Amino acid sequence: MFTRLYQQHAPALLTHLVIHLPSRMDAEDMLVDVFVVALEQQALLMTLSLEEQRLWLWRVARNRQVDYYRRASRRQAVALNEVVETLYEDDEQRPENIVLQHEEYHKLQRHFKRLPQLQQEVLRLRFVNGFRSNEIAQLLGKNDGAIRTLISRSLNLLREIYSREKEE
Fold first, then answer.
1. How far apart are CA 43 and CA 35, in angstroms?
2. CB within 8 A of 46, min separation 6: which ones?
3. Single pTM value for the model
4. Euclidean distance between CA atoms 85 and 90, whole angstroms
5. What is residue 120's three-state secondary structure?
6. pLDDT tens for residues 3-35?
7. Could you write out the DSSP letters of every residue in 26-74?
């Protein structure tokens, strides 16, 4: 019985709601609400004639529509373009900046893998693990000056790789 009720009245109700609500999604949501109420009142609907059922569904839809506009009038609307500027107070958290950071990170990884193994290890120890050059020297059995030079040359080589890529 409920399926028949839905099939008979949903198309017309949806058309009406689409015309009178700001978006099709709102209309579809409201149509679902109307039929949920009908499902909850199935005993009441069984006692009504077909015409009374139709009128009852339209009355529920109209009441829902009125409620929708009442709530909307109480809600303050702010244009999205006004909010976008304040949405991410920290520029680094903006989606476009996060995407750019990920691209740069992948580019750095790709260039980093082009370095000799010793240079990769020294840079990891220095910048990922936070070791000082004298600590790295002790770990690798080298002197501090050699490690400082190696770090400097490794960073210069990475800069050179980036420069060559930009030129291409």
1. 14
2. 1
3. 0.45
4. 10
5. helix
6. 888 999 999 999 999 998 989 999 999 999 999
7. HHHHHHHHHHHHHHHTHHHHHHS-HHHHHHHHHHHHHHHHHHHHHHHHH
